[in-house]
Design brief:
The chain is an alpha/beta fold. It has two domains: about 5-175, 3-Layer(aba) Sandwich (Rossmann fold), CATH 3.40.50.720; about 185-320, N-(1-d-carboxylethyl)-l-norvaline Dehydrogenase, domain 2. The chain is about 50% helix and about 10% strand. It has helices at about 10-20, 35-45, 65-70, 85-95, 115-125, 140, 155-165, 180-200, 205-225, 230-235, 235-245, 255-260, 265-270, 280-295, 300-310, 315-320, and strands at about 5, 25-30, 60, 75, 100-105, 130-135, 145-155, 170-175. It has an eight-stranded mixed sheet, with helices on both faces. Helix 2 links the parallel strand 2 and strand 3 (about 60). The radius of gyration is 19 Å and the shape is globular. The N and C termini lie far apart (about 45 Å).
Length: about 325
């Protein structure tokens, strides 16, 4: 795989373009915004979404999807999860079924409750699909700081080919056959990161955050197993690893959003000041609905959803969580 198309030039998409180029690949990066395309091609930077990072001059950006994917041997889909269906429809018209798609966004589709792999399977049945997910801050990846990540693909041959295409000394993908588990971990941790941010913003202490991370991991595992994921995936880079990073680092868009909520800002005000997407805001409702359909108890995710989308007061929600019955650690909830 020599030519890689990266679809989506946000912070993570731009970082992955840098990763692919560092691995020696020919990279085409698709962006909707003409100003982003111009900045990447002319100044070799993306000041809108990844300021302060100098990009390899060989990375070519375009706002024409058909040009980005022309001749591509693999497509990295890095658009926000809630926009991926629309983009996937366009991709299906321009990308042959033989070209694999690597899902690099994290989320569960609103309304349908589908994972991104399920959306692609519906729109382009028979296409090979993989998932790239794990503990990654885009700026650190773009600067070439050491990073390990899960690359999940059903077929080992495809997985190892993609690992070779993207891997380098500082970007280390680990192949997994568990496409479902890699997506569950990446989606739910965004919701839990908002919860950890609220804990930080409300000054509830490090003990509370540690408890939330641990009990939140239990929620990830319960939902993952109900969807058919493997336990080892959920305790790996795309589960525990990603959760630990986003629940302890204010670089996380989701955690920083939770911190602002905990400090008293409204969701509308927070979102109005941002040009980036905090996937957990949208995934909270989706994961709660999915958990209900699968009869999986997820009190922390449900609490975040109540705060974000049901007008629940933070202090009342926290009090409700603390009033839950005492149970053995291995019990549900």
């Amino acid at each position: 795989m020599n030519r890689i198309a990266v679809i989506g030039a946000g912070a993570w998409g731009t970082a992955l373009a840098a990763v692919a180029r560092r691995a020696g690949r020919e990279v085409r990066l698709w962006a909707r915004e003409p100003e982003v395309v111009a900045a990447i091609n002319e100044r070799h930077e993306n000041p809108v979404y990844l300021a302060g990072i100098t990009l390899d001059p060989e990375i070519v950006a375009t706002n024409k999807l058909e040009d980005a994917v022309d001749g591509a041997e693999a497509v990295l889909l890095v658009t926000p999860a809630q926009h991926s269906r629309a983009v996937a429809v366009e991709l299906a018209a321009h990308v042959p079924p033989s070209v694999p798609t690597l899902i690099c966004s994290k989320g569960i589709e609103e309304g349908t409750g589908k994972l991104m792999s399920e959306v692609l399977a519906q729109l382009a049945p028979g296409r090979a699909v993989g998932v790239l997910s794990g503990p990654t801050f885009a700026g650190e990846v773009a600067r070439g700081l050491p990073t390990a990540i899960t690359l999940a693909a059903d077929a080992e041959g495809l997985g190892r080919t993609l690992v070779k295409a993207l891997g380098s000394a500082t970007f280390r993908p680990y192949w997994s056959p568990d496409v479902i588990g890699a997506q569950i971990g990446g989606a739910v941790k965004n919701v839990l990161a908002i919860a950890c941010g609220i804990v930080e913003g409300r000054k509830l202490g490090d003990n509370a955050r540690a408890a939330l991370i641990t009990r939140g991991l239990a929620e990830i595992v319960r939902l993952g197993l109900a969807k058919g994921a493997r336990t080892e995936t959920l305790f790996g880079l795309s589960g525990l690893g990603d959760l630990a990073l986003t629940c302890t680092g204010p670089q996380s868009r989701n955690m920083s959003l939770g911190m602002a909520l905990g400090a008293g800002e409204t969701l509308e005000a927070i979102l109005g000041k941002r040009n980036t997407v905090a996937e957990g805001v949208y995934t909270a409702a989706s994961v709660t609905a999915l958990a209900s359909r699968l009869d999986v108890e997820m009190p922390i995710a449900s609490a975040v959803n109540a705060i974000l989308h049901q007008g629940a007061a933070i202090d009342e929600v926290v009090a409700g969580l603390l009033a839950r019955p005492f149970k053995a650690e291995g019990d549900l909830g």
